[in-house]
């Protein structure tokens, strides 16, 4: 097993690598949000919040649409949907245009849950992000958004 001191003395510095930093930040935010969800009485992965966020933006979409927008495979999306159904935050309805498909909708509870998630996000922001200026945060979000869109476009074109 490599000791941390060895890594520090090595010429490779993972903190100079974009992928390392973004992955670690995302992972730590995920862990913290998972704790917040448990405090609210919900024991499902915080990745399920991506499904809810998509539905808060656009309700009544297919599972494949969610998979595409969240960059998740069918199996992962299905597990997330099952968790959200079990907490009665979403429901599946038959697609009137194509009986083979199910459309995913928020329940009333799911719609109301948005306020709790937004409050938790504000708490996280004040806990971790308030030391940065609005300009720094705006620039960071702009760069990350552009990086994401460019990478997604590149990957989609390669498929």
Give the helix/strand layout.
Elements: H1 4-9, H2 18-39, H3 48-57, E1 61-62, H4 63-70, H5 74-86, E2 90-94, E3 102-106, H6 108-129, H7 134-158
Antiparallel strand pairs: 1-3, 2-3
Descriptive notes:
The chain is mainly α and 159 residues long. The chain has one domain: Winged helix-like DNA-binding domain superfamily/Winged helix DNA-binding domain (Arc Repressor Mutant, subunit A). It is 67% helix and 8% strand. It has helices at residues 4-9, 18-39, 48-57, 63-70, 74-86, 108-129, 134-158; strands at 61-62, 90-94, 102-106. A three-stranded antiparallel β-sheet has the order 1-3-2. Strand 2 (90-94) and strand 3 form a beta hairpin. Helix 3 (48-57) packs across helix 6. The longest helix is centred in the C-terminal third of the chain and has 25 residues, at 134-158. It is globular. Residues 15-149 form the HTH marR-type domain. One of its GO terms (molecular function) is DNA binding. Keywords: DNA-binding, Transcription, Transcription regulation. It comes from Portibacter lacus. This is HTH marR-type domain-containing protein.
